[in-house]
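Intended use. Records like the one below are meant for learning the mapping from a protein sequence to its folded structure. Do not use them to infer anything beyond what is encoded.
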Amino acid sequence: MSAHHSAPPVRRLGSTDVTVTAVGLGCAPLGGLFAPVDPAVATATVDAAWEGGIRHFDTAPHYGAGLSEQRVGAALAPRDRDGYALSTKLGRVLVDHEGQWDLWAEPNGKRAEFDFSYRGAFASYRSSLERLGLGRIDIGLIHDADDHRKEAVEGTYRALAELRASGEVGAVGIGMNSTDAAAEIIEATELDVALIAGRYTLLDQSALDRLYPLCLDRGVSVIAAGVFNSGILADPKPGATFNYAAADPRMVAKAQAVAGICDRHGVPLRAAALQFTAAHPAVASILVGARNPSEVDDALAMYAHPIPGALWHDLKAAGLLAEEAPVP
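Structure written out for the chain above:
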């Protein structure tokens, strides 16, 4: 572990026995997101997270059509199975497919297709265990059910609730990008955790309205992902991506204004982005995606970077941050 920071604290998910570290490793990049990843580098990335005290690893069949799960499983194979929490997702099954597709740069003859059926969930769960080389999954999440709410509740959720009741899955939740659809599913089910990407960041605090209060009310722990809104908060230059598409000029200008205030206080924008998202009482953990060890080390250093209270005050005074947003 690097000398400059201590391991992130540990938090319990909902009322379950599953615990996660306050920083988790998002493993989509290890599935070859946008560019190929050397399998040895993937293992080194998981090892760097472990050395830094991270004990929560999040993957999904969708990431590289199974490649992320295979790489994460291989990297975690030597580790004590009770020493970490692994989350993967249900709601897609892998089918045969030739050629390139989507965001993934390493074609492997497969692609993921939506399947929110009850039977599809069990098939997805068993296949994930096989790719991961594990006997159980700690956290099972319904993946991207934004436009499939009814099927997801009647199919995937029913299957996950049974897996939870039989002790095969420790905690059950959703993994989504939208706030209203997420809130609807939370209201219709008994979830332990909600992994929400990009809706509570320095640029987008839409989760404050309905979603986070609902999670607090129902005892649903939030895992916040997408803290950099897919890149713009790591490097707010023209042409940066916001929610995986080119950011509009107003969003770039806002990100640059936030960065300017961070600069005045000598704080990297990345540090403010990570710590702001982590400070909300609904948030148990933030998920940081990384494709190599230095990105992991940077995230842990940014999570531990000292930030003066005046920085948050200045962001609110400039109208760049919701007045009611809790700050570190």
